[in-house]
Amino acid sequence: MEKFEKNLERQLMAMRECYKTGKTKQVSWRRSQLKGLQTFLKEKELEIFRALNLDLGKHYVESFRDEVGLLKKSLNLALKDLNKWMSSRKAKLPIIALLSYAEVVPEPLGLVLVISTWNLPLALSLDPLIGAIAAGNAVVLKPSELAPACSSLLVNFLPNYLDNEAIMVIEGGPATGEQLLEQKWDKIFFTGSAKVGRIIMSAAVEHLTPVTLELGGKCPAVLDSLSWSWDKEVALNRIIGAKYGSCAGQACISIDYLLVEKAFFSTVVELMKVLIKKMYGDSPKESHSVARIINKHHFLRLKNLLTDQMVKDSIVYGGSMDEDCLFIEPTILVDPPLQSKIMTEEIFGPLLPIITLDKIEDSIDFINSKPKPLAIYAFTNNEALRERMVSETSSGSVVFNDAIIQFAADTLPFGGIGESGIGKYHGKFSFDTFSHYKAIARRSFLTDFWFRFPPWSNYKLDLFETVYSYDYFEMLLVVLGLKRSKMRFFIN
Amino acid sequence: MEEIVADELRETFKTGRTRSVAWRKNQLNALLDLVIENEESIFKALHRDLGKDPVESYRDEIGVILKSARYSLSCLDKWVAPKKAELPLLFFPAKGDVLPEPLGVVLIFSSWNFPISLLLDPLIGAISAGNAVLLKPSELAPACLSFLVQNIPLYLDNKAIKIIDGRSEVGEKLLKLKWDKIFFTGSPRVGSLVMAAAARYLTPVTLELGGKCPAIVDTLSSPSKTKVAAKRIVGGKWAPCTGQACIAIDYLLVEEKLAPTLIEVLKKTIKKFYGENIKDLKNISRIVNKHHFQRLHNLLKDPHVAASVVYGGSVNEEKLVIEPTILLDPPLDSEIMTEEIFGPLLPIITLKNLEESIEFINSKPKPLVIYAFTEDEAFKERILSKTSSGTVTFNDSMVQFLCDALPFGGVGQSGFGRYHGKYSFDTFSHEKAVLHRAFFPELEPRYPPWNDFKLRFIRLAYMFDYLGLILLLLGLKKP
């Protein structure tokens, strides 16, 4: 461990030296690295699919949809807009600041640490990496050890496509994580649980390192009554996809639970059963289109959510679990007890509790009784309800009539609030999160506000008053001696 | 007691009152009234606490708040409006917006050197963004504290904006509670405590800290420019609270051959602005208290440092005054060169070649501001690209603070986050993404059962290859 630490310190010092040369700030370097990632994704696609299948039992189409395709899109955007992102922005100055010029210019933060997680092990490692590179930083990436095939893939192959002097991938578990957190970073980007998020932020205090924490929470979906059967079917497909389709519900933006009016829940449940079969077949396990649970620990965690008798009794569909395959079939519960773990903790698995309400508007209070989630989903054509959802709840994002898809919109900031996190990324927001926007003010020697300097007098005080209110006319009056100040005080 | 205050603020926030634009404007106007109607009291309080002259107080505190509040009022409608997010055709029909919403109940800590503006300027941001606020001013500026504690409740909505009196123990108790945001101005040491406490609740923080702000002084093309530069250097060192400011010039970097001339011009300027010696000192504030006085006095007690004093150096402990002091090349490992000075002592470090200034600056933690007085455009570009700081200001000092359009904040040890102008609004807001989608059309390829067609569809979709998608759907695309 000590050897590792010494080695690590040496490596990081070398990376800092590399950063100091200014290499990573060059546009050409950033482009070459982003292109390197593009080549990696293209050449190693099969290996990536294999690794994701090994770690999580993901079908390659799901892997493409949720990870590879997303990253390709992200890279295309970064390459397309890089010059625009890097350009300076002029800052408007008041007229009084004659012959002055101000602008804001993004610069990289320096040496940044990206800690990723196991459920989308490629996407959540490389998407932040794209932002960090685009912003011109040197980067250390620590993939999650809980997805070992993917972690190995990144450690073994990524160095062949990227500049190893400035970008390093480190494999390892919690001990490695701790060692990394003891070092000095100019930014830490973390995706994971709130519990570890707190540890990261506490560790960041030592060097006053800014952090972005992409955490989780219980993302609710509100399902209003929809009159058209097309709408109902599409809505439920989207709900099913957002619950069981993305890594079997092990995603920060998966739908955690569903809120439905008492009058409709049985229709909803029946329709869902039909649609689940349509999507996953009679045996979801055999369909290989529902991912596995990542490991025994999480499998047992999910299993335990169902041991409570009252919770077990609330299962209306599914519930079967195969510990050897770490497979849990799509499961629906109706009204498990609200104080049970399945309703108080983030589920992160293919178990969907449906909570019935007297009226759908009650969903707002229900949602507000829990910590702020990463996303709130609401399937409704009721404008009034939509407006109330937006203005009376707080979450990272709100999505109407769909779910998960906001993840693919580069123009929407992706991040949480409160327990669901700090900071945001995707698209230009990724570039921003790894940048420092430096303010630059350029002044001329020719224009000077002589009244800025002592000795002080009432006259100067009057001038300041007019300057601060940008009242140039008043200022002229004062200068011409045509305006007297009101009461004034002791001036030395 | 602190808990009760926090709970009350939360209850008020829940009612939604602070979200209304009318409320926000109303509070900003009330704040303007508070300052305008009590100008004299504010001048008196600042004079009591820091010996500030009314003009300095107006320039650095009152004027700043008036400008800030008026600017926010004029822009508020624009700021609160949702910003449209362009979505790709693939999402059609869809609408994406980024909507700013208040974070909730925020805590603002301010510092003692600008006890009015460093409390009220963040407050303007917090109000504009629609939050409920608890203000904790510094107890080291007691007259200002009293003034604020007395007047804030008289002018502002005291169910939504509260101010708490008390020493640092109160601050510690406040940090144990849950806040939706903490805004802190002060030293890195206390900033760390704030961030550590915030980590418990995953509370986002903005830390406006300090550091040693260097000023590089190059040879200028005319004596008149050197005179202007000298005025601005003196104005950047001693004018703001006698150097007790996070953006005050901490030390100068100058080429050896320029030092003597520069020192002479500086001396002349100091005498003109502030008087010839400590007995006649005027137009300048004093040190805030005995503790800081001792701290500064001790910086001069190091014999090597004392030997480097070329101007000033006299102190008056009773009046807590230290006269403007210039030092020439104190030892680089002395405290005056390793710690933030925050006082009226100006070390001048001479270099053989001014280019070395870049390395010198980079050998220290990233400062809030780097000042550079130079006409060499290439040198300016090198400073910009090879150093890192919150801000860089060329050929002047302090003025960047007044620009509403420039973000004000640090990087590295000088802090993170920023404010002023719209940045204040943003720092107290959460930008919520709102996406509206329709049920028709639906893209079947999103879902299992999986097949190669769907994979190809998704591939083309991620490339926004609409032509390709059409061809694929028409069965006309070869694999």
Q: Mind explaining what this structure looks like?
A:
The complex is a heterodimer of chains A (492) and B (479). Chain A is 44% helix and 16% strand. Chain A has 19 helices and 18 strands. Chain A has a seven-stranded mixed sheet with strand order 10-13-14-9-8-15-16, with helices on both faces. A six-stranded mixed sheet of chain A has the order 5-4-3-6-7-17, with helices on both faces. By secondary structure, chain B is of the alpha/beta class. In chain B, 44% of the residues lie in helices and 17% in strands. In chain B, strand 3 (105-109), helix 5 and strand 4 form a beta-alpha-beta unit. In chain B, helix 2 (21-37) packs antiparallel against helix 4, helix 2 (21-37) runs antiparallel to helix 5 and helix 2 packs across helix 6 (142-155). The longest helix of chain B has 27 residues, at 54-80. Chain B is globular, with a radius of gyration of 27 Å. The mean pLDDT of chain B is 96. Classes of the chains: A alpha/beta (492), B alpha/beta (479). Chains A and B meet through helix 4, strand 2, helix 8, helix 9 and helix 16 of A and helix 4, strand 2, helix 8, helix 9 and helix 10 of B. Strand 18 (435-442) of chain A pairs parallel with strand 16 (391-394) of chain B, so a sheet runs across the interface.
Q: What is the approximate shape of chain B?
A: globular
Count of β-strands of chain B:
18
| Strand count of chain A | 18
- Major sheet details of chain A: 7 strands, mixed
Oligomeric status:
heterodimer
Number of helices of chain B: 18
Structural class estimated from helices and strands of chain B = alpha/beta
* CA distance, first residue to last residue of chain B: 71 Å
As laid out across the biggest beta sheet of chain B, the strand order is 10-13-14-9-8-15-16
Question: What proportion of the residues of chain A is helical, as a percent range?
Answer: 40-55%
